[in-house]
Amino acid sequence: MITLKDLPVEEYYLPGNAACSGCASALSTRIALKILGPKTIVVIPACCASVIQGYYPKSPSKVPIMNTAFAATAATASGIVAGLEVKGRKGITVMGWAGDGGTADIGIQALSGAAERNEDFIYICYDNEAYMNTGTQSSSATPRGAKTTTAVMGKGERKKDVPEIMIAHDLPYVATACAAYPLDFAEKVSKAMKLKGLKYIHLLSPCPPGWRFPTEKMVEVGKAAVMTGAWILYEWEGGKYTLTGPSKGLIDKAKRRPLKEYLAMQGRFSKIPEAEVEALQRDVDSKWEAMKKKLGA
Ligand SMILES: Cc1ncc(C[n+]2csc(CCOP(=O)(O)OP(=O)(O)O)c2C)c(N)n1
Ligand code: SF4
Ligand SMILES: [Mg+2]
């Protein structure tokens, strides 16, 4: 198990970058690169992360980054892996780092193709649950009830379950994570790094301006997502699901905090009708019932 002391002191993603204060994506990139180290090539499509590291001629990244088109993360990563193989370059990890829009929506075709071919790279979707870089439009990963600039009364549709879609591709490794639990995330990145083939990690990334909460509350909001059961931390490997971190203790509904506590922390759920809060709570409960069956619990 990775502890704080195990995290390398060396930084590969420097401060003073263009991220908003309290940005979960920037913090998590820093953690992922600490684990992956200098022999890493990152692929980033159009998204907040491309802005954070892309202010030419400077960059916070000490490792090479290939900025690519919005839809093309998995295709570009596949090409880099093939190029490294042709050149006989070994021991280099390729990591795709894409937003939810670039993963659940426009990038899903390239990702599904790369998954079918079981390409040898790590794909991390940092999920801030909307198109933040362009002004908080809804994506298919935006949860039901959240207000965005394209759903001013709150989104009507449910969140697309991308980790389950990736599990259906029978990959070597699929996991969920949350930026508020960096060591749990680090553990998963470390595990993914040692496996061959396509490894997929779906990272919930609270976003202060997009979710409308104060910047210093990022970790608190992320923890509330997990402790209310709205976001389940798990791994899937060899057909088997395993809960990780605090989610291990939340199978029993009585142990989970009420969802309304999580919703109340965020302006995107403001003035949400009571009946809708109850419907969202039922969504969470049924997701846990489904998880119980998957766990055989
Ligand atoms: C083909 C194409 N359509 C639209 C855009 C404009 N665009 C750039 S970033 C972005 C939103 C990205 O959302 P997401 O992937 O969730 O990342 P986030 O900005 O939330 O970090 C959009 C729509 C683009 N660059 N290319
Ligand atoms: S809008 Fe959100 S995801 Fe984008 S840089 Fe700011 S905090 Fe990070
Ligand atoms: Mg997004």
Can you put this structure into words, describing what you see?
It is a single chain. By secondary structure, the protein is an alpha/beta fold. The longest helix is centred in the C-terminal third of the chain and has 22 residues. Helix 1 crosses helix 7. 48% of the residues are buried. Helices cover 37% and strands 14% of the residues. It has one domain: Rossmann fold. It starts with 23 loop residues before the first helix and ends with a helix. It has an eight-stranded mixed β-sheet with strand order 2-1-3-4-6-5-7-8, sandwiched between helices. The chain is globular, with a radius of gyration of 18 Å. Strand 5, helix 7 and strand 6 form a beta-alpha-beta unit.
Q: How are the elements arranged and paired?
A:
Elements: H1 24-36, E1 40-44, H2 48-53, E2 65-67, H3 73-87, E3 93-99, H4 101-105, H5 108-117, E4 122-127, H6 162-167, E5 173-178, H7 182-194, E6 199-204, H8 208-211, H9 218-227, E7 234-237, E8 240-243, H10 259-264, H11 274-295
Parallel strand pairs: 1-2, 1-3, 3-4, 4-6, 5-6
Antiparallel strand pairs: 5-7, 7-8
Helix pairs in contact: 1-7, 3-5
The chain binds thiamine diphosphate, iron/sulfur cluster and magnesium ion.
Residues 99-101, 128, 130-132, 139 line the site of magnesium ion.
